[in-house]
Amino acid sequence: MLDILSYTFYILLFSLSTFYSFISLQKLKNIIHENSRINLKHIEIEYSKSLVNYPLKDRKGKTAFLKIDHKYLNIVAILNSNCSHCTEHFEEFWYLLTSNNLKISLQILINENSNELLHYLDLVDPNLSIFQYKNDLIDEFRIPYYPAFIVLNKQGKIKFSTPDLYELYSLFLRRDSLLTNN
Hints:
The chain is α/β, with parallel strands linked by helices. It has helices spanning 2-36, 86-99, 115-124, 136-140, 165-174, and strands at 43-44, 56-57, 63-64, 73-79, 104-111, 129-133, 148-152, 158-162. It has a six-stranded mixed sheet, with helices on one face. A hairpin with a 5-residue loop joins strand 7 (148-152) and strand 8 (158-162). The chain is elongated, with a radius of gyration of 26 Å.
């Protein structure tokens, strides 16, 4: 009789243990699932005015404007010479673009009188489209951070902006609808 009770107890203990293990596993899966969701840091922005119409300066100091490429995705990178991590983030961004052979239309905006930054970008690639901006552009278009990686739509309006180049890259990998050129 003791053996039967002991056996029943072990079966009950094993069943409870299996049940609680299953419950714990489900909770763990839910936690992992919640943490694996992409937490986007970008800001979706709807502007009535176009960044393309904003006057900038080219390398020679003449008035210039951004151009929209209707074939490729238009990305504008805004860098600032006072930003200690802008060059590092741009290097990583450039590496992701070139190593993965991503085809985009890239235009870079740097603050006025940032000759060191201009020289650095010339070393990265002398054919980059680089423009200089006045600080009122940052206020007018409410750019809250440096660097800013901005996707433009076909009208030259800001579609979204993010400081996180890996977020932008993950959108590339997922072929996210935010990256459609419209």
